[in-house]
Amino acid sequence: MLNPLWCERITMTPLRKRMIEDLQLKGYSPNTQQAYLHAVGKLARYYSKSPAQITEEELRAYFLHLTQVERCAYGTLKIAISGIKFCFAVTLHRQWPTLGMIRPGKARRLPVVLSRQEVRAVLGCVRAPVYQACLKTIYGCGLRISEGVAVQVTHIDGERKLLRVCGKGNKERQVPLSEPTLELLRGFWKVHRSVPWLFPARLQPRSASQEGPVEVVNLRQAFHRALEESGVKKPATVHSLRHSYATHLLEAGVQLRLIQEILGHRNPSTTAIYTHLTAEVRTQLVDPLQALTENL
Fold this sequence. Notes:
Blueprint: H1 14-25, H2 30-47, H3 56-69, H4 74-91, H5 98-101, H6 116-124, H7 129-141, H8 145-149, E1 156-157, E2 162-166, E3 172-176, H9 179-192, H10 216-230, H11 238-251, H12 256-263, H13 268-272, H14 279-283, H15 286-293
Antiparallel strand pairs: 1-2, 2-3
């Protein structure tokens, strides 16, 4: 019978509580905590016992199952490995060689980018004002979806035209606000005048939630409905708005280093992927390549 240690429906147990505390002490975001706990919970369900009772050989077999049988996607495997490593190495203090063996193969897929016209088409089809305002802010500031829904009224510095963003790992950064985006935020706040959330949950259509900001799942659904209605055929997501923002800035001549700071990327190579996506950047290669290959 399945040990209920990692089932979400039961009460908190000492090991789960300890892991949550360890994650909090390390400064992991709530979303990362939830993802790590889910990964360890899946391991516990696979063997029908507590993670504390799992042997190194069983852990090795489980990693093989993820990579060879389930063939997990890169992102899924990366989260699973990170969460399980954290549980065993940090919370259970087990420095097993197996924990250092498994590494997900790197996947470098180019992100989906919408043109400026496509962005306008999709956002124009978002019907609920709270969702439309939030999605426009995500595009206009290059935010992650979790950052977009969490914008608070006090985060806006209208005089300096800056938005304070609390990003991954609780790291703050400042993002420039264009005049149209600033006016959008001012106008939307005047509609509801709620604090602290700029996009409060109570404005969601047909939602029972009255507390906190708009829900991520509802915002995603609103975006996908608008995408279908717009006729844009690209497999875009809300995160595509962030990719599009960065690509459009690069096309406009903004330096890559500045875009990196705005997006909150720690590694420059993460931002550099956008150089592969812009027509303007590719156009810069035409003359040099022509000269390079001429009279060969």
